[in-house]
Amino acid sequence: MSEPNSVTAHVKANIVLYGALVANLGIAVAKFVAAGISGSSSMLTEGVHSLVDSGNQVLLLYGQKRASRKPDPTHPFGYGRELYFWAFVVAILIFAIGAGVSIYEGFVHIQQPQAIADPTLNYIVLGVAFLMEGASWAIAVREFDRSRGEQTWWQAIHRSKDPPGFIVLFEDSAALIGLVIAAVGVWASIHFADPRIDGVASVLIGCVLAGVAVLLARESKELLIGEAADPVLIARIRDMLDRHPRIDAVNHIRTIHTSPQAIFVAISADFDDNLRMGDAETLIEELEGRMKALSPWITSIYIRPEKRADAMVW
Prior knowledge:
The chain is mostly helical. The protein has ten helices and three strands; from the N terminus they run αααααααααββαβ. The longest helix is centred in the N-terminal third of the chain and has 30 residues, at 82-111. The chain is elongated.
């Protein structure tokens, strides 16, 4: 009974990824069929786009599995940051394959234009794809909105330590924009009797993907290098330490996310000079308990008693 329950819990926890994966796989097949029948460059580009997105979701699920491994002597803080590596790989794939193929295919179609035989199938596929991508986007928005709290959208994205959430959000947003561009490209190439417009639409879709890839690469790089915890949490830790009567000064608080839901905290504090060794040990244990009560994500704590004059403060 426990195994089915664990599978269900896993799917619920990754509903954004699984929803995007199912939508993209179905859409990719439909787009490739429509592109093969109609000869549309932007439809072929959109098919590649959906295929790349599907691969990205698989990589993120794989990254989550790898990141969930328990700490060992080789990696005493666990493997959580491996998820950030795979998020960076996803950004590279979007840029290299998604954007690269789209722009290349667009330029080829501009140089060697091919008229669209019948746009009807393209419109049907694009309409269905828009509904499916819209549903996936709505799930991503709902889940991300639930976790952002009082932060603005950009603050939540910039401070997020969980790449799958904002990656799927960006991918789905880019997909919806791409579908609109593809539809306009197909319509315009028919309306103005100029098949080169369809190629221009492919180039524009590639530019959208390139922009998304650069943004994701930047956010993933920061996480991979190592980002501090939420400033609000750091401020709460400092306030708790400042209020303690046996601490004369807090020299510094340094934090780093070792995974989306694991934080390492290193503290240098100037303790009361009259504090005996045994009492200091008890105090450190008390402080660790209080910090873990502030956030269940605090998994490792290092507290160093250090004179204010000797500490490096920044």
